[in-house]
């Protein structure tokens, strides 16, 4: 398999490949490489922070004691920050690359926010467990998650007063897309999800007195349906498979959707809704490796951060620093902007975030100082942030240049360039690259990471 194709596959299925990985993989064919990706991600490894210091809290205790509720909120918020940093670390070091990349995709599909660390961990690990499994089982599991039941108000969905929020988003955002259902379908399906609830530990429970056991008519079918039945009926609609395949294509292939390729994926997915089979077909397709797809995607903030670490391992000494960087770049894990999630693509880049992206490699890796001199009308917002904080360092990190030098020991400067810059370069960029200093591989790496082309994968 060619180096460029390997880089493309590993950026879309993960966060890039190292030179040593490419050397080994270059002697294998496409099927062997794809098979290995799935084998490494065959089983999920749960992600958990130590919650022993708050394990003593119970639902009854919080219900009766206001001060205890406040104490739990404070402690839970602290643990959520720890979980965020732990998740970023997992993305940087895990061998279950494909499963973790799929988890990152699905948390933006089933976008959800919560402030209870126990429920957030459970939701995150449910997504991780189902990320490559059956989509129908996945949706059913999500519909019973404590975090989602709260976020989309399904805890308030009762027989006497149906709440349609979850039912609407189930079809509009999770399974079918806007315009492929009626208002009556929303009303009838909402009745099927009445009584869905959870206990303090996050375990699903059906409140039978609040569940509507009467007949519902949904998509032309009539029965005494519950939520699982509604999901099964939705899955019968080919539009469900098509909707998911369009999102998969947009995220893993190209924002410019090729409808024929989406239909090809739809035929595969609609057969059994097996996510692994869908992704395997995608990665094995010749069109996936088309030049029009390679280097066409703007890296998300998380892909950008983890990708830097893939080349030059960086350890953040304080959790707050990695969260601060996420906020500045516009993607804070566990905190999507709304139920539709992050829009992605060109929305990742604006006048503020592009300046931060271009300067971040030199700040993290080269201990660069950011000027706080007056900039006038075109003041750099990144420098303004630095000035406000009045700190000498932006983030406390430990940079493992030794690992970088071992990886690139036999690499020429041209090798490093082809490793880090994925898209086809314009003549202007090629000319500019000739002017870069080549006295040090470290400096050359930082300079390449500071180019606009490094934002693409």
Characterization of this structure:
The structure is a single chain. The protein is mainly α and 457 residues long. Among the domains are: 3-40 and 237-289, no CATH class; 301-455, no CATH class. 55% of the residues lie in helices and 4% in strands. It contains 23 helices and six strands. It has helices at 3-13, 19-25, 30-40, 59-64, 66-93, 97-109, 117-130, 135-143, 146-151, 165-175, 183-192, 227-235, 238-252, 259-272, 275-284, 301-311, 319-329, 351-365, 381-389, 401-407, 413-420, 427-434, 441-449, and strands spanning 196-198, 204-206, 216-218, 221-223, 314-316, 397-399. Helix 8 (135-143) runs antiparallel to helix 12 (227-235), helix 10 (165-175) packs across helix 11 and helix 14 (259-272) runs antiparallel to helix 15. The longest helix has 28 residues, at 66-93.
Summarize the structure.
Helices cover 55% and strands 4% of the residues. The protein is mainly α and 457 residues long.
Largest sheet: 2 strands, antiparallel
The stretches of 5 or more residues where confidence is low (pLDDT under 50) are 370-392
Number of helices: 23
Q: What is the number of E strands?
A: 6
Q: Helix/strand-derived class?
A: mainly alpha
Q: What is the string of SSEs from the N terminus onward?
A: HHHHHHHHHHHEEEEHHHHHEHHHEHHHH
Instruction: State the strand order across the main sheet.
Output: 1-2
Mean pLDDT: 93
Strand content: under 5%
Globally, the shape reads globular
The helix fraction, in percent, is 55-70%
**Ends distance:** 18 Å
**Radius of gyration computed on alpha carbons:** 24 Å
């Amino acid at each position: 398999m060619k180096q460029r194709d390997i880089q493309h596959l590993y950026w879309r299925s993960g966060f890039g490949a190292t030179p040593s990985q490419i050397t080994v993989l270059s002697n294998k064919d496409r099927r062997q490489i794809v098979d290995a990706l799935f084998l490494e991600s065959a089983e999920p490894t749960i992600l958990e922070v130590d919650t022993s210091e708050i394990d003593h809290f119970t639902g009854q205790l919080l219900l009766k004691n206001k001060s205890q509720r406040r104490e739990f909120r404070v402690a839970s918020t602290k643990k959520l920050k720890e979980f965020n940093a732990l998740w970023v670390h997992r993305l940087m070091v895990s061998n279950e690359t494909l499963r973790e990349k799929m988890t990152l995709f699905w948390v933006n599909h089933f976008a959800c926010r919560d402030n209870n660390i126990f429920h957030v961990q459970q939701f995150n690990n449910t997504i991780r467990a189902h990320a490559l499994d059956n989509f129908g089982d996945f949706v059913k599991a999500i519909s019973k998650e404590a975090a989602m039941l709260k976020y989309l108000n399904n805890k308030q969905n009762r027989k006497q007063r149906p709440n349609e929020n979850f039912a609407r988003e189930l079809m509009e955002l999770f399974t079918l897309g806007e315009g492929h259902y009626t208002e009556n379908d929303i009303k009838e399906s909402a009745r099927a999800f009445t009584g869905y609830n959870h206990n303090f530990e996050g375990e699903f429970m059906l409140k039978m007195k609040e569940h509507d056991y009467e007949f519902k008519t949904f998509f032309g079918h009539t029965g005494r349906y519950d939520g699982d039945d509604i999901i099964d009926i939705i899955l019968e609609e080919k539009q469900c498979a098509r909707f998911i395949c369009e999102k998969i294509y947009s995220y893993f292939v190209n924002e410019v959707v090729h409808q024929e390729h989406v239909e090809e994926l739809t035929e595969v997915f609609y057969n059994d809704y097996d996510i692994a089979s869908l992704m395997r077909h995608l990665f094995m397709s010749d069109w996936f490796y088309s030049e029009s797809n390679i280097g066409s995607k703007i890296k998300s903030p998380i892909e950008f951060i983890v990708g830097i670490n893939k080349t030059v391992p960086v350890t953040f000494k304080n959790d707050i620093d990695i969260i601060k960087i996420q906020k500045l770049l516009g993607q804070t894990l566990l905190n999507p902007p709304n139920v539709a999630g992050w829009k992605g693509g060109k929305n990742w880049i604006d006048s503020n975030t592009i300046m931060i992206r271009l300067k971040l490699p030199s700040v993290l890796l080269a201990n660069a100082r950011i000027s706080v001199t007056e900039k006038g009308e075109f003041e750099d917002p990144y420098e303004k942030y630095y000035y406000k904080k009045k700190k000498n360092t932006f983030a406390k990190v430990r940079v493992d240049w030794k690992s970088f030098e071992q990886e690139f020991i036999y690499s020429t400067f041209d090798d490093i360039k082809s490793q880090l810059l994925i898209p086809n370069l314009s003549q202007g960029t090629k000319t500019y690259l000739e002017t870069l200093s080549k006295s040090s591989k470290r400096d050359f790496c930082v300079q390449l990471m500071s180019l606009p082309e490094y934002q693409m994968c």
